[in-house]
């Protein structure tokens, strides 16, 4: 499973990129709205220049025509821009259009295996099932990822699964075990993935022993 970062904050992206683990970035209108002093297109441009991988920018139109217009503008920003589209009939019309043009798409707001299958058949490059938001309403987000992975495997579907709406480190390991190709992870959770008390304790012990050595 690869890692994308789920943020529009450039400092967070720069830091995670410096760790050498990033394969891409996802943004959404709520994440972009938190960023002040820069336009959406300029932010996508700077992210796409830094990160050598898929950078999702989401459309806000509700009709296919509007989505296509916005998506074409987004795709001109950089060759690694992925057009993020909502899981609706209009979104899938736009998905089909972009897929025929060879422009990458990420169909978002996936909450059922049937939605993922429909998006894949419309030529989606990625589908994004939302784990955390399903857990919030008492359903099992990880189980959905496992179902989609099994269906894509049985039918040899190449669309990649991005486990999204990740809330904690356990989601990450469970998404990997369930067969997600990618997890898009908020910066806070990415940092949590590094930590284990025995790692910290081990470093402390090594340093203490090093200080105590006799052959200084
Ligand atoms: C990513 O593509 C999604 O937009 C994002 O993961 C949603 O996360 P949230 O449910 O925490 O808002």
UniProtKB/TrEMBL annotation:
It catalyses: D-sedoheptulose 7-phosphate + D-glyceraldehyde 3-phosphate = D-erythrose 4-phosphate + beta-D-fructose 6-phosphate. Gene3D superfamilies: Aldolase class I (3.20.20.70). Its EC number is 2.2.1.2. Keywords: Cytoplasm, Pentose shunt, Schiff base, Transferase. It is found in: Cytoplasm. GO terms for biological process: carbohydrate metabolic process; pentose-phosphate shunt. PROSITE patterns: TRANSALDOLASE_1 (PS01054), TRANSALDOLASE_2 (PS00958). The keyword Phosphoprotein does not apply. Transmembrane segments: none annotated. Its main location: cytoplasm. InterPro entries: Aldolase_TIM (IPR013785), TAL/FSA (IPR001585), Transaldolase_3B (IPR022999), Transaldolase_3B/F6P_aldolase (IPR004731), Transaldolase_AS (IPR018225), TSA/FSA_arc/bac (IPR033919). The active site is at residue 84. GO terms for molecular function: aldehyde-lyase activity; transaldolase activity. It holds the Pfam family TAL_FSA. Pathway: Carbohydrate degradation; pentose phosphate pathway; D-glyceraldehyde 3-phosphate and beta-D-fructose 6-phosphate from D-ribose 5-phosphate and D-xylulose 5-phosphate (non-oxidative stage): step 2/3. One of its GO terms (cellular component) is cytoplasm. Transaldolase is important for the balance of metabolites in the pentose-phosphate pathway. Belongs to the transaldolase family. Type 3B subfamily. This is Probable transaldolase.
């Amino acid at each position: 499973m690869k890692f994308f970062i789920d943020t529009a904050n450039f400092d967070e992206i720069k830091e995670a990129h410096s760790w050498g683990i990033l394969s891409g970035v996802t943004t959404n209108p709520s994440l972009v709205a938190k960023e002040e002093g820069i336009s959406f297109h300029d932010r996508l441009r700077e992210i796409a220049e830094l990160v050598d991988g898929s950078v999702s920018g989401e459309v806000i139109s509700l009709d296919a025509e509007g989505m296509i217009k916005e998506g074409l503008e987004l795709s001109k920003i950089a060759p690694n821009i992925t057009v993020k589209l909502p899981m609706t009939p209009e979104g899938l019309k736009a998905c089909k259009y972009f897929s025929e043009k060879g422009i990458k798409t990420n169909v978002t707001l996936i909450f059922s295996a049937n939605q993922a299958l429909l998006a894949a058949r419309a030529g989606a490059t990625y589908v994004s099932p939302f784990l955390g938001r399903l857990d919030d309403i008492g359903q099992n987000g990880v189980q959905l990822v496992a179902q989609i992975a099994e269906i894509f495997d049985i039918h040899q579907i190449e669309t990649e699964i991005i486990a999204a709406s990740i809330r904690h480190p356990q989601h990450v390991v469970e998404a990997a075990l369930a067969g997600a190709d990618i997890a898009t992870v908020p910066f806070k959770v990415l940092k949590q993935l590094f930590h284990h008390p025995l790692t910290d304790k081990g470093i402390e012990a090594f340093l203490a022993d090093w200080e105590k050595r006799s052959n200084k």
